[in-house]
Input
Amino acid sequence: MAPQSYTISSLAYLKVLLHATKYPTNPVNGVLLTTSPSGAADIEVSDAVPLLHHWTSLSPMMEIGLDLAGGFAEDNGLRIIGYYEASDRADEKTLGPIGDRIVSKIKATSPDAIALVLDAAGLSMGEAGLIPYIASPSLKIIPNSFTSRPPSTRSTDSKQVSTFHLAAVDLPRKALGAIKEQSLQNELGDFDDHLEDVRIDWLKNPKVTAAVEKL
Amino acid sequence: MAAVLREYRNKSVRAPHEVLKLGRKLLQTHSPGALGDDLWPLLEQTYLAALDMGDTALAGELFSQLDQRFPGSQRVEMLQGVRLEADGELDTARRLYEEILQGEESNLIIWKRLITVYKQLNQVQKAIDSLTQLLDVFYNDLEGWLELAALYTEIFQYDHALQALSHALLLAPQNPFHALQFAETAYTGGDIPLALSQFLRVTELVPSSSGQGVGLRAWLGVKQCIRRIQYAPKKLESKSGAPGVERPGLVDECATERVLEAYDGEGVCVEGKKAVRRWLGA
Output
């Protein structure tokens, strides 16, 4: 049975947003991590690992980055639950073919896999700014998402569609504030950045983790 | 202030935030006569920065000064087009550029703007056609070949992308970055033996001391290619006829060593190192 709900943590949300903001003229992508076991009814997307901004349509570093992030997740009691991407074009908010391929790869080990696509236009209108997709049984977009809090009552209808939520309703506003006032995007590094300078901690991004507590 | 901006112009540095700040100040504190020959380039530079930063009021003001001084000039028409692009009037900008090119086919700047607009309009095939036409005339335009490769990659035509990249490599044979793009494209297109030989070529182009950046990417690529070759159920043939490497085991060992070396320095990211060691099986 598909999970009932997915909740995006402040940390995961902030990292996705910072990644897109740091490289506004490039497409960017990365993976989403969770502490929730496979089969859980409510999934918390707890963290994100930013991967590429350089050649997002080329696969070698993507494959290696995925492997490395997977190993990191396993060592830390997490698993890869999904993939995210943001286009360099503000009007583009559909999952591209590369993302499609990566999500099906994630689905092979995590049937509850998802994808999130940044919707910059929606974000600027005060929405969550994320378009969610679920991978099972086949990849499909979940329309009208991020509209309400997690349901408090359990539905027994097995055909019910999963719902998506932010850990806090005012998260978009706070995240945009941190970008505008502190240029927090400059504290985030992805796998491409790490390959340029191996001192950059792309797996944990500790400075972003520290900032999230002060949001 | 004026010197910094001149330097940015000469080196094509965009830095719109800073340019806007300095340019605005310079224009406010100096009379047009005092700026001399710098005035018009400075106006143009500040105008473009204002568009980048969304300051449409200032952009409009600067544009009318330029337009008054050089009425009907193609440069000013181009600047008008950039403004249309910034305002999201992509179709109008496209028409403007196409019109200018009908009058003067060899205007490289307008060609480039038009191709950018096609890309923004998601008309990849049109962008490819225009670039191909452009490169027929300006073969030496390295940036154009790289862009053509990126466009072909976007529509999964990796063989065409590799062809475009081989022109780039002819024009700049010593540039490890282009060779790296070639290798990663070959890998993506499924020609692993070709990718492997190109990743190895990259490692020869970068100074041996540099274990980071291009070098590190290339060694990781080497490793990944050899894995693909070793785990393949049958021998991987190269579409392009690239020969396989001799003694892959030895090359693999060398790659492992070089990757580990990159993580030897001080202050390297601990988690990153751990993940890489795990990946290497070291």
User: Anything to note?
Assistant: Helices of chain A lie at 10-22, 60-75, 97-109, 120-124, 171-182, 191-196, 206-213. The radius of gyration of chain A is 16 Å. The beta strands of chain A are 5-8, 28-34, 42-52, 79-86, 114-118, 130-134, 140-141, 163-166. Residues 17 and 176 of chain A are 8 Å apart (CA to CA).
